[in-house]
Amino acid sequence: MCRFRVSVPLGIILLLLTACGQGPNTPANNSSNTVGNSAAPVSLSITDEPPNGVTVLFFQVSLTAASLMPASGPSVSLLPNNTPIQIDVTELQAISAFLSTGSVPTGTYNSLKLTFGSPQLVIFNASDAAIASTCPLSTVCRLTPQVDNSATLSFSSAPFPVSVSANTPLGFLLDFHLNQVIQSDLSVNLGVTNGVTVSELPSTPPVGLPRFGFLYGTVQNVSASQNQFTIQTAWGRTFTIDANSSTTYQNFPTSVCSANSFSCLAQGQIVQVEVASVQSDGSLLAATVSYIQAASQQVVEGNIVNLSTASGNTVMTILLHWSPNTSLLPVGGMATVTVPGTATFSVDSGNFTIPAGLSFAGTSDLLVGQQVQVGVASGTLSNSDGKGPWAPRSVSFTASSVELEPSQITGTITSINSSGSSFTLTTFANFFQSWSNSNLPSWTSTQITVQTTSQTAYQGLTGDSFSGLAVNDVVSVRGWLFSTPSGATPSALAAASVMQRPNAVF
After folding, report:
1. CATH class as words, domain 299-405
2. Which of 161, 168, 255, 279 minimizes the number of CB atoms within 10 Å of its CB?
């Protein structure tokens, strides 16, 4: 099921914090999102881009500290219990995610201070000798980069200073540009010019796009009398979620519930929540609750980076971006997945209507670059490490099911078909290139036909509509990537959202 994680593309991370009328020395809440009666949401977001010459398959960094610096008095921690948050930056391109809440007093704040640590990088190297000295050519490598510059960044220029007022939402967008941050020797320089920037989120998001993003976790408790439930994230944080008459429920299988209502929720389910707003008591109001899986199921999600055949079966190589058990199925690791003829295929489109003619029904519909959720057939999971000192952790298993999830792709608009409500996107060569350990990929751009519908959301465009698109615009699109029959374009994408990237920065 579709969810947010912190895709080889770029994107947005959202860290939501709440302000309340307590003293500056009061610590943030330990684990829940409960705050005082006088509260204001404060949020943080991130985007990414791979450097030239390599494909960035995975980049994770830990946010170890986040503080607002008031005009007077001590700083205010924004991380509950000062617990670090692991962020998969590469899963952020055209979506946002809700990470945390904490308590912040009202008042004026002159700057934002962030500390990062423990970067982890997985790349495919088709670059030059400098990178090859650390990571051999035509090799997938997992690296622990050095941090060349201070891991603590302070932002004091616009939009600062800012005023935090009771019950008034306030958000910040943190742009994390990997092509600037990751150096030619694969070290990380967070202080490089234009490596990380901060802007303020708009008070009203574009139509069809959530302001506060997505959050997923395991349901801990359900209170039908209060229309409220709690979830715990993979990092151990607990959130209280409210539902109302506008909340919708998606992807609950009939074997679990056929009502598509609050009554479908049960302890132990893993769900995704699209956060509509933050309540004055610190609870989160859910716009949509989507069923992901039962706790007893073994399911992973990732990007297809290679396709091959073995013993008559299709074999996918997947870079893992999410799993319910990271000790068995490592995030940032590689999975070799055998897809037998018995595997079921589906599309996780939720309430989005996929345009006619696009199909995902069997192995012939698989495509490098697709984001998929894969069910692990019972008893087939095994460790397949031992491919060299640079190799990321890897596993192998047989798929019981394959579900198509939205991919996130950035590129340049090279043509527009207004009558067909579609455009051609020419991707950057760093994204979604087929490769193998014995042959270098052909580092050429790929053309994708992006099909939009009345349900497609737009951000950063004139009028926030299809008419705002122009040839040579750099945009990030999020949607379902389909293999198409032979023709002018090798694939098509049904776009849930299109986001413009001004000045080709993403």
Report:
1. mainly beta
2. 255
Query: Does residue 19 have a pLDDT over 80?
Result: no
Return the number of other C-beta atoms located less than 10 Å from residue 382's C-beta: 9
Query: Which residues, including other chains, have CB under 8 Å from residue 493's CB and lie 6 or more apart?
Result: 407, 409, 425, 448, 449, 450, 451, 477, 479, 480, 481, 482
DSSP output for 360-421: --SGGG--TT-EEEEEEPTT--EE---S-TTPPPEEEEEEEEEEEE-EEEEEEEEEEETTTT
42-56, 219-233, 312-326: lowest mean pLDDT where?
Answer: 42-56
- Cβ pair 199, 71 in contact under 8 A: no
What is the 8-class DSSP label of residue 498?
Answer: E
Q: How is residue 224 written in tokens?
A: 């039908």
Strand partners, 203: none
Classify burial at 92, counting beta carbons within 10 Å of its beta carbon; exposed 0-12, middle 13-18, buried 19 or more: buried
Q: Are the C-beta atoms of residues 416 and 450 closer than 8 Å to each other?
A: no
Domain ranges of the chain: 15-200, 214-293, 299-405, 407-504
Q: How far apart are CA 124 and CA 56, in angstroms?
A: 7
Look at residue 495 and tell me whether its pLDDT is greater than 80.
yes
Q: What fold, for 407-504?
A: OB fold (Dihydrolipoamide Acetyltransferase, E2P) (2.40.50)
Closest Cα partner for 231 from 218, 244, 250? 218
Domains 214-293 and 299-405 in one fold: yes
Q: What is the largest CA-CA distance in the chain?
A: 69
- In contact, 170 and 16? CB cutoff 8 Å: no
What is the torsional sign of CA 376, 382, 387, 393? positive
Percentage, residues of the chain above pLDDT 70: 70
Cα(321)–Cα(302) distance, integer angstroms: 5
- Omega prior to 51 cis, within 30 of 0: no
State the chain's mean pLDDT as an integer. 75
Q: Which range has the worst mean pLDDT, 10-24, 314-328, 360-374, 428-442?
A: 10-24
Q: Say what the pTM is.
A: 0.76
The first and second tokens of residue 37, run together, are 């009666």
How far is residue 344's CA from residue 363's CA, in Å, rounded to a whole number? 10
Superfamily of domain 214-293: Copper binding periplasmic protein CusF (2.40.50.320)
